[in-house]
Fold this sequence. Notes:
Elements: H1 18-26, H2 30-43, H3 47-59
Helix pairs in contact: 1-2
Amino acid sequence: MNTKKLYRSVNDRMIAGVCGGLGSYFKIDANLVRVILVVLSIATACFPFMLIYAICALIIPLEPTPPSDMTIQGN
Length: 75
């Protein structure tokens, strides 16, 4: 069974990758998520959505990245 997991984006990020991660999770454009976040923040005097964003940035893990092609050269 293939389950979807919510991760913060490593590539599509402005601040912490929360909107990029939500966009990829729901398969919508991350810029649309950002616009919705800004509009809701302005409509609610900013504080609630800034707090939610900060909490999400702390508890949502970064997406796993494949190991890079690093070689360790000895002397």
